[in-house]
Write a structure and sequence with these properties.
With about 425 residues, this protein is α/β, with parallel strands linked by helices. Helix 2 packs parallel to helix 4, helix 4 crosses helix 9 and helix 7 packs across helix 9. The two termini are about 40 Å apart. About 25% of the residues lie in helices and about 25% in strands. It has two domains: about 270 residues, Zn peptidases (Aminopeptidase, 3-Layer(aba) Sandwich); about 130 residues, Aminopeptidase i, Domain 2 (Roll), CATH 2.30.250.10. The strands form three sheets. The chain has a nine-stranded mixed beta sheet, sandwiched between helices. This is M18 family aminopeptidase.
């Protein structure tokens, strides 16, 4: 079924973003086309009051902002660029039973079973020495299916439908080819791909890489009436895309900031994660005076946008009976008294008012009292900065699967309310 214009743009973004590096690169290109200026953290910044700027760190995290009058309070939207996946190990080559495979490491809380019998490709960042002796990095994306993880036939595992136990070390290495003599070398394969995608890079030797397998199946709008949107990496590229679209669509009269950081799925503790100093470093350069910066942060609000759990019709008992978010019923306010989410009554009320102003439905989510609760960048950023925060997200099925599903109308809802937020004159 044909995508709506909004979902087509989301599908294009996801297709162009198989890794956090690609997602960040795509956002940079979109922002530059919209008139934003790319800042370098290693250079001095000369910021103008009416300026529109972006800065990246590690090539996988991005902060974009419009200055306006920051002392009135900054409208921040936070999301994350990474998704659970299978990452290639440093020395991954395996030759077993005449087949060439690559050893992988599980990144984040992956729902492993759906990775079997998929058409997989490979993408990421490769670092190499060029002919001048300099170290450089480039992004690559094989795009076409080059691997799969075949299931074991039910005839050889009769109890598989009763209790599937997946060993991450032995069961997950994807198959890429028949073994050849001499034995295949991943770095030689990467050399060929680099020379294909970047013929002018002056490559001499591939040194290291950060590579992820991903599903090549494109996003789809599905359902008898086109009610659903299915894709890889909806958690959390959907929120990155919505925040990007809202920032570009906003009137730019208010001080606004989009913060898309890497490594949320593994705790955010890194130089470019939400638990690192990236956002604080940028804020210190935007507002150098300590007292003025604290006053500004206390006037600011962060909307932490990360997907929420929709109530599954086959497993409705996994939700609190009064808090079962539904697809296509608008963004979800996420609440947890143990601070796994940073929402409080003031920030949730503020978000509800934004939804009214944007003519967007809104829902709420609280995890069952006898179940553990996930978390987001919201509490991390709130605790580091002291900024008032509301945790929200689009409801989805199959979170952390290789393919997730959202309502086909919810992305538009999220873009509308985030645009309203960026344009609002009064913060809570």
């Amino acid at each position: 079924m044909t995508h709506s214009p909004t979902n087509q743009r989301l599908a294009d973004f996801i297709q162009a973003s198989p890794t956090p590096f690609h997602a960040t690169q795509h956002m940079v290109e979109s922002l530059l086309a919209a008139g934003f200026e790319h800042l370098d953290e290693r250079a001095d910044w000369q910021l103008k009051p009416d300026g529109r700027y972006l800065v990246t760190r590690n090539g996988s995290s991005l902060i974009a902002f419009t200055l306006g009058k920051p002392e009135t309070g900054i409208r921040l939207v936070g999301a994350h660029t990474d998704s659970p996946c299978l990452r290639v190990k440093p020395q991954p080559e395996l030759n077993q039973q005449g087949l060439w495979q690559l050893g992988v490491e599980v990144y984040g809380g992956v729902l492993l079973a759906p990775w079997f019998d998929r058409d997989l490709s490979l993408a990421g960042r490769v670092t190499f020495r060029n002919r001048d002796g300099d170290l450089q990095s480039r992004l690559i994306d094989f795009r076409r299916p080059i691997a799969t993880i075949p299931s074991l036939a039910i005839h050889l595992n009769r109890g598989v439908n009763d209790n599937l136990a997946i060993n991450a070390q032995t069961d997950l290495p994807p198959v890429l080819a028949h073994s050849q003599e001499p034995t295949q070398d991943l770095r030689e394969l990467l050399r060929s791909q680099l020379e294909k995608e970047h013929p002018d890079c002056g490559l001499e030797q591939v040194l290291d890489y950060e590579l992820s397998f991903y599903d090549t199946q494109p996003p789809s709008t599905l359902g008898l009436d086109g009610d659903f949107f299915s894709s890889a990496r909806l958690d959390n590229l959907l929120s990155c895309h919505a925040g990007l679209a809202a920032l570009i669509n906003s009137g730019a009269g208010q001080p606004c900031m989009l913060v898309c950081t890497d490594h949320e799925e593994v705790g955010s503790s890194s130089t470019c994660g939400a638990d690192g100093p990236f956002l604080e470093d940028v804020l210190k350069r935007v507002i150098p005076d300590n007292s003025a910066r604290i006053r500004t942060i206390q006037r600011s609000v962060l909307i932490s946008a990360d997907n929420a759990h929709a109530v599954h019709p086959n497993f409705a008992d996994r939700h609190d009976g009064n808090h079962g978010p539904r697809l296509n019923a608008g963004p979800v306010i996420k609440i947890n008294s143990n601070q796994r989410y940073a929402t409080n009554s003031e920030t949730s009320s503020f978000f509800r008012e934004l939804c009214v102003q944007a003519d967007v439905p809104v829902q709420s989510f609280v995890v069952r009292s006898d179940m553990g609760c996930g978390s987001t960048i919201g509490p991390i950023t709130a605790s580091r900065l002291g900024v008032r925060t509301v945790d929200i997200g689009v409801p989805t099925f199959a979170m952390h699967s290789i393919r997730e599903m959202a309502g086909s109308r919810d992305t538009e809802y999220l873009i509308r309310v985030l645009t309203q937020f960026y344009n609002t004159e009064r913060l809570v």
